[in-house]
Amino acid sequence: MAAQLWFLRHGEAEPHGTRPDAERRLTERGETQSRSAGAALVALGVPIAHVFTSPKVRALDTARLACAAGLRLEPVVHDAVVGLDAREALALADTEEHGRHALIVGHEPDLSQVLYDLTGGRADLKKGGVAGVRLGGAPELLVLLRPRELERIAAAPAD
């Protein structure tokens, strides 16, 4: 099983009603949030081995932008990320080599519910926000980062 499972909520998207829900696109701010999330994960040294994403346009674009910002991976569309539950999240983590990390890009309230089901911790995962969970034994919430924190991490000079 993956050593850590990371979650990224899609960036800010067009308002409901703009177009069919599955086709809603990221706003400019959402694109920036997505790039910052990917760059921050790289800056934090999180060795993401695989990225799974919802097929909805806003999540898929978030995953692509995060990957292009330094993760250097191609996101894999996984339909079960829409309506994700803890069992499915763990199944995705189990596809990874031992000691590797997976990232799931999805939606609320699914991601916060999975975080709660895995760790017992309540989280308010903001659009463009990231959470990390250590797996093995009792899963533990490692970090919950808001978009503005991710932007600061991404922009910080490397040591």
Radius of gyration using CA atoms only: 14 Å
CATH topology: Rossmann fold
Find the structural class using helix and strand composition.
Answer: alpha/beta
Number of helices: 5
Low-confidence stretches: none
Main sheet overview: 6 strands, mixed
Q: What portion of the residues fall into strands of 2 or more residues?
A: 15-25%
**Can you say what the CATH homologous superfamily is?**
Phosphoglycerate mutase-like
Helix fraction bin: 25-40%
* CATH architecture descriptor: 3-Layer(aba) Sandwich
Rounded to the nearest angstrom, the distance between the terminal CA atoms is 31 Å
Task: Explain this structure.
The longest helix has 16 residues, at 28-43. The protein starts with a strand and ends with a helix. It has a single domain (4-154), classed as Rossmann fold. It has helices spanning 28-43, 57-71, 86-93, 110-119, 147-155, and strands spanning 4-9, 48-53, 76-77, 101-106, 130-134, 140-145. The protein is built from 5 helices and 6 strands, in the order βαβαβαβαββα. A 6-stranded mixed beta sheet has the order 3-2-4-1-5-6, sandwiched between helices. The chain is α/β, with parallel strands linked by helices. Helix 1 (28-43) crosses helix 2. It is globular, with a radius of gyration of 14 Å. Helix 2 links the parallel strand 2 (48-53) and strand 3 (76-77).
